[in-house]
Design goal:
Length: about 180
């Protein structure tokens, strides 16, 4: 009898224990079912944030590439203009030498003309006229070369200003990128 009573008590106690355990499991299970929803929402928000960050990084990369490309183009333009100026300055030096040679030849021909006889005079006069025309052409060429040099110098200064502006923008862009 005692054993039946203990057996009945254990069965009742077991039922109560199983019931409490079932309630506890139901509470835990219901808490866990809400938990994955919250985690899923957090993951969705995180994925959206990552997408936004990737889009910003892609846009920043494109901007940086464009700035670098423009900077390289401007650098090439500056190099080209500088080469043109160097070639022009060589032309100016050569033209100045031609003008000097023409001036010296004119003096020589004028000196020859004053001491030349009538038979040589016509020939020296013709040479003097040709040399004066060449000297006049050299002067006009010198003026044209100087105008071209002034234009190229202005163009070089403008290109250098653009290069500095682009370089400054690239530096500002670089400084705006957060370091990790």
């Amino acid at each position: 009898m005692l054993s039946a009573h203990v057996s009945k008590l254990l069965t009742t106690r077991t039922v109560w224990t199983l019931g409490i355990a079932a309630l506890a499991l139901a509470g835990v299970a219901s808490g866990q079912s809400r938990r994955p929803d919250a985690t899923l929402d957090e993951l969705v928000v995180e994925v959206q944030a990552l997408r936004a960050e990737m889009n910003q990084a892609a846009a920043a990369s494109i901007r940086a590439q464009l700035l670098v490309g423009r900077l390289q183009m401007e650098d090439q333009r500056i190099s080209g203009v500088a080469r043109e100026i160097e070639a022009l300055q060589a032309d100016l030096a050569l033209n100045a030498q031609l003008r000097g040679d023409a001036a010296a030849r004119i003096k020589s021909l004028e000196s020859t003309l004053t001491s030349a006889g009538p038979d040589v005079r016509d020939e020296v006069d013709g040479l003097l006229a040709e040399t004066k025309a060449a000297a006049s052409q050299a002067v006009r060429r010198q003026q044209a070369l100087e105008r071209r040099e002034a234009g190229l110098t202005k163009e070089l200064q403008e290109d250098q200003a653009r290069w500095r502006e682009l370089n400054e923008r690239l530096q500002n862009f670089e400084q705006s990128i957060p370091s990790r």
